[in-house]
Specification:
This protein is mainly β. Helices cover 8% and strands 53% of the residues. The relative contact order is 0.20.
Length: 314
């Protein structure tokens, strides 16, 4: 299962960090291209399309079975965002937006690719985003995680997230090392309202803390290359990692290394395109390792996940 882009699919490694969650689209952006795109699309509606390819799919440290490990997994996604309101608060402003989208995961295990038998997951989501003063932002989303292969519904959940853009703090401190983008910390609470992601049938509560520092390792007017290092820690607040009647607080920790570059050769009227590759190390807890054994994906403490992807925002 996975999170959608707006509600902290924390980064590249979309399938990979679907363990922690994050689409490939959060990479370096060329300012000149940004300005040109804004001149083309200056309305209140934006579109994001993308796809990631990975060798394994885990969700918050939870094994998705042998059909999603050791083989090619393709994960396309799309969402539409609407800027609804904005109003001043002192020298800053509060913005409110709405978004709706879908995230998918296809396995190449067995059957004819493209058939329902390969369509492992489809996540439908909608939510509200809030731009807050002092660099904070928040999201509230409802997600239905479905199994089109015929298994029915994985789970439904309400996600609440809070993120902080700390880049201005580093600039004020005079730290301008390779265009360091700050730590970009966030927290996420997920409340299951139906089903369960661990397959136990017990609705649980999940908590995640993470951050994603980044630097520009190759300066270029058109093709700067950004290195980001996403980290996530996934914990069970109540009954989220349950197997054999137990529940373990620690679910997983993950750290990744992702390279991203804008595809500036694409004309601005076709949107802002980006590509990236990454490697994630996923460290499992006792319960998530036990779930992995039960799902036929081994008892390794550490998994190595490679992801590549491309995205377009307009």
């Amino acid at each position: 299962m996975s999170q959608g882009q707006k509600w902290i699919r924390s980064g590249l490694l979309a399938g990979a960090v679907a363990l922690a969650g994050m689409p490939v689209a959060s990479f370096a952006q060329d300012a000149a291209v940004d300005q040109e795109i804004q001149a083309i699309n200056n309305g209140n509606v934006s579109l994001t399309l993308g796809a990631d390819i990975t060798n394994e799919y885990w969700f918050r440290g939870i094994s998705q079975g042998a059909g999603n490990t050791g083989r090619l997994v393709i994960q396309p996604y799309a969402d539409v965002a609407f800027d609804l309101y904005s109003f001043p608060v002192g020298d800053e402003e509060i913005t409110i937006g709405f978004y709706v989208g879908i995230w998918n995961s296809f396995t190449t295990s067995g059957g004819n690719f493209g058939s329902t038998g390969n369509w492992y997951e489809a996540d439908l989501y909608a939510g509200f985003s809030f731009g807050l003063p002092m660099g904070f932002s928040a999201d509230v989303a409802y997600i239905a995680l479905e199994n089109p292969q015929g298994g029915g519904e994985f789970a439904q959940e309400i996600d609440l997230s809070l993120a902080y853009d700390d880049s201005a703090l580093w600039e004020q401190a005079g730290i301008d090392f390779m265009e360091f983008g700050g730590l970009q910390p966030y927290i996420l609470f997920a409340f299951e309202t139906a089903g369960s992601s661990d397959g136990s049938g017990q609705e649980g509560i999940y908590f995640e803390f993470g951050f994603e520092p980044s630097i520009v390792i190759l300066q270029s007017e058109d093709y700067p290359v950004t290195l980001s290092v996403p980290f996530a820690l996934g914990l069970s607040v109540n009954d989220y990692y349950v197997i054999g009647g137990g529940d373990d607080t620690f679910g997983f920790a993950s750290v990744g290394f992702a390279l991203g570059v804008p595809l500036s050769f694409v004309p601005a009227e076709f949107g802002e395109w980006e590509a990236g590759v990454g490697l994630t190390f996923l460290f499992l807890g006792d319960q998530t390792r036990a779930i992995s054994v039960a799902n036929g994906t081994g008892n390794q403490d550490v998994r190595y996940i490679v992801t590549a992807g491309v995205s377009m925002t307009y």
